[in-house]
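Support request, please re-run this one:
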Amino acid sequence: MSLTNGENSGVAAALDTDVDEGRARERDRRFVWHPWSPVEASGQDALVLVSGRGDRVRDAAGREYLDAMACALNSSCGYAHPALVAAAERQMSLLPHYDLSVGTHLPVGRVAERLGALLPEGLGRTLFLNSGSEATEAAVRIAHDYWTNKGEPRSRIVTFAAGYHGTTYIAQHLSGLPTNAVYGAEPFPVTRVRPSLPARELRTPEALPALVQEFEHAVLDGTPPAAVFVEPLLNVGGGVVLPAGFLRALRELCDRCGTLLIVDEVFCGFGRTGRMFGFEHDGVTPDLVTMSKGLSGGYVPFAALSTTEEVYASFAADPLLGGLRYGHTTGGHAVACAVALAVLDVIEERKLVQASATLGEQLLAGLRPLLDHREVLDVRGLGLVATVECAGPEVAAELVAGARARGVLLRRQGAAVMAIPPLVIGESGVAELVSVTGQALAAL
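Re-run finished. Output below.
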């Protein structure tokens, strides 16, 4: 059966699966440990999903939902895309993978070359991993080792307190979010910037001088940092849009102080914000870029870290190996590389980056009238990321539940409700997303 991606007419009957929803839920309740979920409620209200197509998913009871959570924030090309499925199947039949510390395979070189063409000139050296968290670990390791290789050891990292860079130990250590607190000795010093302005004011031009000054103070107050590590848009921190020009000012600050700039594009990259990469809104070139999520569209685990030839070449001075002492068994997995190449083809052929910018403006314009509701503090967004900031987490939870009951899946980050649909969503899908969100809010 041939599937046409992006169709919103419903999940094909051929994808139906004979599932006992009650049994599936009970099995889940007894045996599965759900991440980021209260133990006493684990699995009780979880959707039992069985199939998807385009921007829709379908549960075991036959209910269909517009997925405005984009799977795990990573569905760039939507569900059941034939080109992605075929790419995985073809590569799996040839060579699933090979240890990149002792050999190579064709897809890894091809995807590295492709990323080098998409990134700004100079960011041509890429390390492949399995997740955004691993990319963060690698970025921190590389930043620390770079300065050691140069004979100028540095370890401090400057970042946002509300930033999120993954859930491995080092990644959680970077964050100041309460849910990311780690235990034990601090592996290295981190200076976490807490903006003085609330999220709803932070995106304004007036916020730029204050935010830049806060980062300047963080960089200059203390030992020289190894790197400044930021997201172009604070995702888990509440869907916070930063002021235009912030990354440009941060690049200038890092250049002035001789500090590496690491930009986390795990969530923002590959069209999510209406540009291929979030840092392109400010026209800057980072020293290191971490990528994942949209790069493989949610089909396979995959991540990448790209950096400059200068950073790469410094590892020749490593005293033990003369190279990077970091890697994973399935990093740069051949099947994942093949899928990533297919994802990049689909993004280019369907002009999904441009679509994200256009449809994102329509989504934001449609949601702005929600500001008239007494429980809404702000509506903000960038590309196909839209945030409705509610008066509190309880209100946000009710809004998400109301939308789900009406067939739309939204994501909640504290008091922020986020609409993050697959990039293949069309105008009718955006209109439905706006309408249902409004209905759910009105029913509170």
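The CA atoms of residues 275 and 281 lie 7 Å apart. Residues 85-349 form a domain with the Aspartate Aminotransferase; domain 2 fold (CATH 3.40.640.10).
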